[in-house]
Amino acid sequence: MADVSLTVQFANVLPVIIGGVLAIAGGLASQIAIHRLSDSRDRKKVRRERLESLVKALYAHEQWVTGKQNKLIFKNEDHDEPAPLNEIRMLQALHFPELSKEVLDVQEAFSPMLEFIHNQRIARMKDEKAFIANWNPSPFNEAYKNHLRAAKALTERCSH
Prior knowledge:
Elements: H1 2-74, H2 85-95, H3 100-126, H4 128-133, H5 138-158
Helix pairs in contact: 1-2, 1-3, 1-5, 3-5
């Protein structure tokens, strides 16, 4: 009789034990799922912020180029500010190896503009009247268009 009563008690307690185990397992599973979702969301947020920093530096670089042109050529002043292109290259190298081609394209499109600016500055320093008489911004404008195309390609790649 004692065995029957113990069996009955165990049969009565078994659903409670199973319910407790299921509750604990469900709690653990939900915590794991919440942690994974939160971690994934945080990684996406950090990536988005880094991409925004890269694009912000890209737009700062475009302003830097035109500022350098204005100061060196038109205002005949020095312009020793560091190029934001370095920040773009750093962000790409550290966090976005898949963007190396696009950043290289921006850098290559930048070189002719910088060369034009320096050549025009030298021409102005040599003979200002001849510089003014021979002023032709077409090479810079064409190089700037190429730079904008490369910048657009990089921006579009960042938005995906």
